[in-house]
Amino acid sequence: MPRSVNSVAAKARKKKVLKQTKGYFGRRKNVWTVAKNALEKGLQYSYRDRRTKKRDFRALWIQRINAGVREHGLSYSEFMGLLHKKNITINRKVLADMAMNNPEAFAEIVKKVKE
After folding, report:
1. What distance in Å separates the CA atoms of residue 20 and residue 59, rounded to the nearest whole number?
2. What angle do CA 94, 83, 58 make, to 5 degrees?
3. Looking at residue 99, what DSSP letter applies?
4. What is the pLDDT of residues 30-64, one digit of tens each?
5. Phi-psi region of 52 (alpha: psi -120 to 50; beta: other; left: phi over 0)
6. DSSP letters of 30-84?
7. What is the band of 115 on the pLDDT scale with cuts at 50, 70, 90?
8. Other C-beta atoms within 10 Å of 111: how many?
9. In this structure, how many other beta carbons lie within 10 angstroms of the beta carbon of residue 85?
10. Under a CB-based contact definition with an 8 Å cutoff, are residues 63 and 75 in contact?
């Protein structure tokens, strides 16, 4: 019986991987075995870092809120505690943005919380 090889599908698979590794450095972009490994590792990193990104941004927002609140004589934890006590539901992303780009509005929120 003759040997059966599906070279069309194999070539398509390789082409797909090499297309995805376009822009990689050196042999990682055009040598099949190296490109396949580089792509797999890159996809692992992207999966992991989609979760890490959320952590990093939350930490950044907390730092920005803390810096904005300390100008008004409070700490971050005190501010967040008072915010929850007053039933003001604004998320950290919006608070951080206000602290940086709209300090007047942020000052109003801090004043409202301090009352």
Report:
1. 32
2. 40
3. H
4. 999 999 999 999 999 999 999 999 999 999 999 99
5. alpha
6. T-HHHHHHHHHHHHHHHHHHHHHHHHHHHHHHHHHHHHHHHTTT--HHHHHHHHH
7. confident
8. 10
9. 9
10. no
